[in-house]
Amino acid sequence: MTDAERTIPYSQSPPPSDIVQNFGQLLESLEESDVEFEVEGEIFAAHKLVIAARSPVFKAQLFGAFKDQNTKCIRVEDMKAPVFKALLHYLYWYVFPDVEESFSLNSKWAKTMMS
């Protein structure tokens, strides 16, 4: 019997990918997080490999030519905390969070994000 004759044809489709769900759950659980971002005094934990894979800016900051001296806690000075939280949500879940849930619709930041 040849190898081709022994091969059993694959009759089922593989299950749909749940990698986005897995990444999102990783962010929510903070399991094995290895970097923190300080934004307006608020600390956000994350995973270097995930955010570096999703953002060339974070990749350069964490692993490249622009690597910070301290990659355990990175201070972000040019962003509001709720905006950074929404950015992390997007990097892990591949969708932006609900603006009404994340921001007060009366805030100037929500209006900026929606315009």
UniProtKB/TrEMBL annotation:
SMART domains: BTB. Pathway: Protein modification; protein ubiquitination. InterPro entries: BPM1-6, BTB/POZ_dom, SKP1/BTB/POZ_sf. Residues 33-92 form the BTB domain. SUPFAM superfamilies: POZ domain (SSF54695). This is BTB/POZ and MATH domain-containing protein 2. It comes from Abeliophyllum distichum.
